[in-house]
Amino acid sequence: MTTELPSAVPETHPRTKGDTLPTVAARNSVADDIAESDAGTVVDVASQWQLMRWKFSRHKAAVVSLWIVAFIYFVGAFAEIIAPQDPNRTSGRHQYAPPMAIHFFAEDGSGFAPHVHDYSFETDPRTYRKTFVEDPEKVIPIALFVQGDTYHFWGLFEWNIHLIGPVEPRQPFYLLGTDRLGRDNISRIVHGTRVSMSIGLVGVAVSLVIGLILGGLSGYYGGRVDHAIQRTIEFLRSMPTIPLWMGLAAAIPLTWDPLAVYFMITVLLSLIGWTSLARETRGKVMSLKNEDFVTAARLDGVSEFRIITRQLLPAFMSHIIAVTTLAIPEMILAETALSFLGIGLRAPVVSWGVLLQEAQNVNTVATAPWLILPGVAVVIAVLALNFLGDGLRDAADPYSHN
Amino acid sequence: MIHFIAKRLVAMVVMMFLISVAAFVIIQLPPGDFLTTLVASMQQGSDVSQEQIAFLTRRFGLDQPLYIQYWRWISGILLEGDFGYSFQWKRPVAELIWDQLGFTMLLSLATLLFAWAISFPIGVYSAVKQYSIGDYIVTFIGFIGLAIPNFLLALVLMYIGFRYFGQSVGGLFSPEYRTAPWSWAKVWDLISHLWIPMIVIGAARTAELIRIMRANLLDELNKPYVTTARAKGLSEVRLILKYPIRIALNPFVSTVGWVLPSLVSGAVIVSVVLNLPTVGPLLLTSLQSQDMYLAGGFILLLSVLTLVGTIVSDILLAILDPRIRLE
Amino acid sequence: MSDILLEIRNLSTYFETRSGVVKAVDGLDLTLRRNHTMCVVGESGSGKSMTASSILQILKRPGRIVSGEMIYHFRDGRTVDIARLDPNSKQMRAIRGKYISMIFQEPMTSMSPVHTIGSQISEMMLVHEDVSKAEAKARTIELLTRVRIPDAAARFSSYPFQLSGGMRQRAMIAMALACRPDLVIADEPTTALDVTTQANVLNLMREIQRESGISIMLITHDLGVVAEVADDVTVMYLGRTMEQANVFDLFNAPKHPYTRALLGSVPRLDLQRGERLTQIRGMVPNPFARPTGCPFVTRCPERRFGLCDRQEPDLYRLDGSTSRCFQHDPVHAAAWAQNDEVLA
Lengths: 402, 327, 344
Fold this sequence. Notes:
The complex is a heterotrimer. Chain A is of the alpha+beta class. Chain A is built from 13 helices and 4 strands. Chain A folds into 2 domains: 223 residues, Orthogonal Bundle (MetI-like fold), CATH 1.10.3720.10; 88 residues, no CATH class. In chain A, strand 2 and strand 3 form a beta hairpin. Chain A is elongated and about 85 Å long. By secondary structure, chain C is α/β, with parallel strands linked by helices. Chain C is built from 11 helices and 12 strands. In chain C, a hairpin with a 2-residue loop joins strand 9 and strand 10. Chain A: Its main location: membrane.
């Protein structure tokens, strides 16, 4: 405020010739400084993205969520390495085995020696049910970056290094327990991350393309085009989605390749998903197309296509990104629901919904509550994406104050 | 008003037509036709002759072009209430559908009322006491409510019930009432079973409605007419009840349009988990066994009933809002 | 019965926000006479509307009255300091609408869109007076007729969106008059209307004042309106009174440099050809960065250095008017006159 200003300060309110007042002389006085800085001669300029970033960083929950989401996608991307073992490796001896605890120090006090304990089996004398008990005698040493099951990393090369695992390959190591066939729960959840999180992304990408095009056309041209697209959206939204999806998903032939099923399901989810994005786009385009800067461009003879891509799109892109982020969790939830019912993705594809299928009845859940854990993964992912989207939406709106 | 309702009704008829086409497409989608399935299942018992197949083909009009098949199907439904034949149950679809559909609608509507009844006061509280601790708690719970898939919530509740109370929480009736004729005791039994599915199905939508109510009311609380009312000397409680809440109610009521479809969807999934005698389990098995007339009938009726619910809410909105009623 | 209706002394209303304190009203003095029209003028951000909201204690959060007094004189001679009342108290609510009522800028948004005009007006009577619904309705229709709304009985059950802008503002006036208040505060009641409607509404207000002997506090930035309707004028700047005078003195012999600057920026018919309108240089300072010394010092063409930017002038009582400028301070006037270092 009190820094000295250069003498040739331009006046923001130029006075006219007939004015009797003497012109401003550079003067080192408090009053002058106030007058000049108030007149806006020193203005910090921040780009729109920078403003968004500032605003976003104030939204604590959203910042934390951003890291969580980044972590989840990281896990999905490097699933083969992070998972301790092959998600489809079964073990007849370890059906419904409970989670193991990691012990960091050796029991005899000889220092740092991370290990888990193998199970012993006890049979209930009355019910003859086999129960697992951790046996402190059976020590299985574990380490980081150990050799284990081989895999094709991203289909590029074969490798067998796992982030964490037993030092001795193929020894039992079940941090989050096992399922009906003795498959490692944590490895399955990690691999499910890739499928569930990517189906959200791919589905939203498809929705985004359809939504942007149809919403943009609807908002930009208005009239009959708008009417037709709006009625279509209303129609799709008035249908209960789950029965509709169930009907369509059930029509996917059982003989199809799992990858084809995956894409088909994505397309089905996008069938409804595009409507909300189209609505947002339409609203934004409608409010923007009559703005002065668009009219000015039109008067300058700029082509329609260029107006849309150069004037309109950048103006609402930030908003669309926020809405898109909010659409991903809906996709994830929908995929989970369909797969849970057994009409979405199918084994051997591993997604959170497919995993939850294992926990369909209460008896299973009572025997092996850890089979609910993929659901916890769903909740965390959806929660984080929702917070993130909320933060982005607030940041994208320069005039909101919350 | 009459003009408005007439317009909505015309739109509804068009929508119903489109829905029926969509349902018919779904019936037709599985590879082959249902006759293949039928023949396959008949062959397991006895031999099916060529004549029989030809007879069935003619009977169901499978040799006709699609639009004629559609016409036969829809006219059967409209004129005779004939929804076709369920091959899995070997009974006409119409016989199978109504009970389940009734329960589904009952459950969805009860859940809608429940979601409203809960979200309205909480949303109002959260807006009026913006930035209070209560508001933060409500907002946070709301976020969680939106993130939990309803079937997962159902599983968790069932697990808790099983583990800590030693009872199963599924079903709509206690065993002794399941086949009993209707009586007041049975109705009461139904009501006492209804609340768990209601919470499970309604949780996410309740959370969403709280957010909507809060946002609407916050908007309205800052409108000049609230200041006017304050300047009149009305007490704070009275003026909030009479003006902003009354006006925030309008968009709230109009949410039925999308809340109802999602509640019906939720009811379908949750019913599978909680083993409720609603459309869910039957629809799922019919889809899995490609019993397409049954599945198509369900999808058609669920959609149509949802549509009717939406129209009712539109009319309700018109009654509430003079700007819609009088323009 | 005292000639004075409302005395505001040193009123301050602050908004404590996260980014700092906004002093919307900052030591305001103002005297309202019974049966007179007081116009409050000033640029946007001068605190005119906040003054109105303060009088009725209908400030939006986080605004609150931090100091000062507002002595209201009832007809029976009792007085009350409104500034000391709790905004949510019964006494305050009894004053709102019954003794002091308000007409807002935007009649469309200031009325509930889903309640009829009639119910919104008669509510006022039902809240403050012991009347039956039928009585209130009859009186409302009477009021609507009085503010010249045609076919008043039918309009009773109309909704605001069914009326034209002028009609809505008339209905708003009817609402303000419902309980025969002593003071009607009108916050820019005509800015949202077109010019002919403006004149009609102003005429109506004057007429009503003449008939029923109420006081009007009219908030406006339109000096044309001031010349038309005012008895007294208060000029506000940055939440303070700069000058209060009767309308003739103010236009003929403006005391304060700010008043002079304001009057110089209004187009007049007697302006010579080629003569230019003057503009007040600079802008109203940022509410977070108020100047030290006189509030107007950053823009004043007559400011004196070493004086105006150091000390804050009081509100000096002159013959029948007041002015907040050192040139009217008996102590500083001489110094002010000698110090010829006029700075632009």
